Amino acid sequence: MSVAFRRESDDEHMEPKFELPIPPGPNWVTARGLALTQGRVAALEAADLSGLDEDAVKKHRRELRYWRTRLATAQAQPAPQGEEVAFGSRVTISLNGQERRIDIVGDDEADPHAGRIAFSAPLARAVMGAWPDENVDFAGKDGAITVLAVEAIPQGE
């Protein structure tokens, strides 16, 4: 029989399910980020999977594998000392004439709308290593960012 007349199963046309992508590089976390990761793993492990269909169970297990991996590879970083911008810093900057405050955190803790950006983000990479009153280049513009103030992210935030 010709292949042209063969009935293909519906599974052949489905999108394959891959593991959740792990961000490249080290898995640096703040104390808050470590607590969030531990809480996420605990919540996923405690979830009742009875009553869920097979796809939902697979999705849940895939998410649990991701968070367990992130917890196992987490490298808690000490709070930064001094005024140099580093991982765990709360930085007040002036960018394009607008003042903005950002916290430099781990990849899984990042929430740009809340002002928490990953240390691997371009903006964080641009200001890391800078000091207050220093101008740094960003997005191809010389001195686009002025670092106004630097402090450690307060505990519990």
From TrEMBL:
The ranges of region (Disordered) come to 1-21
GO terms classed as biological process: DNA-templated transcription elongation; regulation of DNA-templated transcription elongation
**Alphabetical list of InterPro entries matching this protein:** GreA/GreB_C_sf, Tscrpt_elong_fac_GreA/B_C, Tscrpt_elong_fac_GreA/B_fam
Composition-biased stretches, type Basic and acidic residues, lie in 1-18
Source superkingdom: Bacteria
Q: Where is the Transcription elongation factor GreA/GreB C-terminal domain?
A: 82-151
Q: Kindly give the Pfam families that the UniProt entry links to this protein.
A: GreA_GreB (PF01272)
The terms under GO molecular function for this entry are:
DNA binding; RNA polymerase binding
- Membrane-crossing residue ranges in chain numbering: none
Q: What is this protein called?
A: Transcription elongation GreA/GreB family factor
Q: Which organism is it from?
A: Sphingobium fontiphilum
